[in-house]
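(Structure overview)
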Amino acid sequence: MSKHNLPKSIRKYIRLAKAKIRKEVFDPQKQKESIAGLLAQFVKKQ
């Protein structure tokens, strides 16, 4: 199981931003790139 390391407000922001990206961007590859960029802002690699 994954542990939630981010506050609920940030998880909510990420969820809504991902939904917005999926609505606006039609190319699946660009969607993945945009979402990866969004997550890179918040998630720290260990």
